Amino acid sequence: MTETDKTLRIGLIGAGGRAVGGYIRYFKQASQSVEVVAIADPSEHNVKVCLEALNFQSSQPTIYSDWKEMLGAVSDLDGMIIATPNFLHHGPAMVSLDKGIRVLSLEKPLAATPKDCRSVVRKAEELGVSIQLGFTFRLSPFFAKVKDLLTSGDIGNVVSIQMDELVGPRTTSVLFRGPWRRFTALSGGSLLEKSCHDLDLLTWMADSRPVRVSSFGGTAIFRPNTFLPEKCNDKCPISDSCVYFLGNDAMVNNIGSLKMDECCIYNSRKDIADHQSVQIQYENGVVCNFMLNFNTAGHHSGKNLHIVGTRGRIWGNIHDKEVISHNMETGKVTEHTLEVNNSPHGGGNILHAEEFLRLAAGTQEKPMSSEYDAFVSAMICFAADRSRAEKRQVSIQYPGFKDIELV
Ligand SMILES: NC(=O)c1ccc[n+]([C@@H]2O[C@H](COP(=O)([O-])OP(=O)(O)OC[C@H]3O[C@@H](n4cnc5c(N)ncnc54)[C@H](O)[C@@H]3O)[C@@H](O)[C@H]2O)c1
Known about the structure:
Blueprint: E1 8-13, H1 17-27, E2 34-40, H2 44-53, E3 62-64, H3 67-73, E4 79-82, H4 90-98, E5 104-106, H5 114-127, E6 132-133, H6 141-152, E7 158-166, H7 169-177, H8 184-187, H9 190-206, E8 210-218, H10 249-255, E9 275-282, E10 287-293, E11 302-309, E12 312-317, E13 322-327, E14 333-337, H11 348-361, H12 371-390, E15 394-397, E16 405-406
Helix pairs in contact: 1-2, 1-11, 4-5, 5-12, 9-12
The chain binds nicotinamide-adenine-dinucleotide.
């Protein structure tokens, strides 16, 4: 990366799993000198974990128990990271921009409602700011290669894209019994929380605007069960076989420092879907089929992709270190080998953190994905959830500059 001599002064709102795992662990090894000088988080446990991860710094950050308090006090920041629960993206983003902070890394999704998404996009537009959104997969070698192949024209024009996201036990557990993701009012639902990434990738690969969406799904796996207790350690009769049993070593190791409610994953209070399919039609005619499923593991879980073009196909799985393409005219199958670093999200995590440091240092002007990309992906999620609830197709319309509406 291109670094500067300056030590960057960074603020952090929300010091949970993503802040530590997606930013701070890479700051430690960055060639750019960087210090987190202020942290806002009401959780003493998470702040403690975060401070341990910041043990490489020469000075301690100032700790605030809430983002409003921090934004009232801080100045001279080179950049701000907002990694709060989804319903708390809008407030900190708007106030940070009002306070004159111009380099913002806002975690995906943009916000938890269409209204909040729209107001962040308007504010950024008014100020001429481009916010970095946490769409780490765009930077992953796998999807970067797919995008290159599409741009090269090797498979002709894209006709259809099939993708699925098969989520493993750790993330499933975090979604269905973590403190906020399992409630639509706080997370915006499981599609928005988990797969705004995927819907952004589909739009990026289709290279067009989504215009129609339909969706099906609901709760088929994590349904309440009166034979099971409310909590794992309350003499659960399936503790030996349940992969979500919180006394099970694999689950404890998977969770690490994350705080998890001890509730049974089946009997936890929640209102989010555990499986959902989404069909999207784009303005340029591309059609996409997407499936989100929790409670999966093993070979070819994660993200699977298959693209059909007018002259060939591209396919692969995010965990494989290759993308494969087939050309219909020559019959040639090519295995494109990838160099992948070992950071999560297909190697996109570290590249995203490095991009944030370049933006803060002023050596990169614009992020790979911005607030408008995130508005589009969030609106596909809201359209899909509306389609599922109202049992109809939902249109996505573009009534004016950068505005999006669902009809
Ligand atoms: N880009 C990615 O790939 C990726 C991966 C994981 C999570 N995320 C996103 O990052 C965000 C955070 O996720 P997480 O896994 O870290 O969740 P988390 O629950 O571990 O962390 C959220 C933190 O925000 C804090 N918080 C709550 N209220 C606050 C307030 N008023 N002021 C300041 N802090 C407050 C919580 O105490 C917690 O420490 C979410 O939006 C999530 O969707 C993105």
